Amino acid sequence: MATSEVKVLGTWSCPYVNRAQLALKLKSVDYEFIEDIPLKKSEILLKYNPVHKKIPVLVHGEKPVCESLIIVQYIDDAWPTGPSFFPSDAYERALSRFWADYIDTKWYPLVKVVRQSEDKEERRTLIEKLSEGLVLLEEVYIKCSKGKPYFGGEDIGYLDIILGSTLRWLQVTEIVLEIQLLDQNKTPQLAKWARSFCSGDATKDILPETTKLLELHWKIQDFIKAGYKL
Length: 230
Known about the structure:
Distance between the termini: 36 Å
Largest sheet: 4 strands, mixed
Strand order of the largest sheet: 2-1-3-4
Strand content: 5-15%
């Protein structure tokens, strides 16, 4: 596949963008990565995503696909070679989509909020909710993996990509708050999965370095304190 036929618009630090990159790598698809700073709303972003004006955007043969959950599904459909990201069973596929939506709408948004919160009581409440969510996702992992390494079984699947892309920012949050969210005692299987996922050959070159994300976090905090809305 020529690089000109497939493009990814996004920024290196965005977990939603990392999902598209990881899915393409798993399918052995070459692509052109176009670094796009979300705050500037570049012409190319407005061209390919005029509705939401957000990254990531996958461009395949000049046809744009937006929203990371949809992008990963599209990649699985458009390049069917190799293992599918989804189970063959219809109900299990539906469950994968359900939990992906839970991660994006209920759980992961709390990671950013708790990291940036200055209110101790609010932080305490959010940390409890995050921990409860991880315990729930531990149960999902055990059920979906069926004793195998990944949510997808022997191979990285849809939920691995969706949750795995958030792990580096979760690590940053742990460092900032000086806490352990992926607790070896409360979520031993999920903690083991996270270590394996982050160190795997397919993911280690895609996921940003935690140290670089930590530097970015402090820069963002400085902007917020200066009165900028991000």
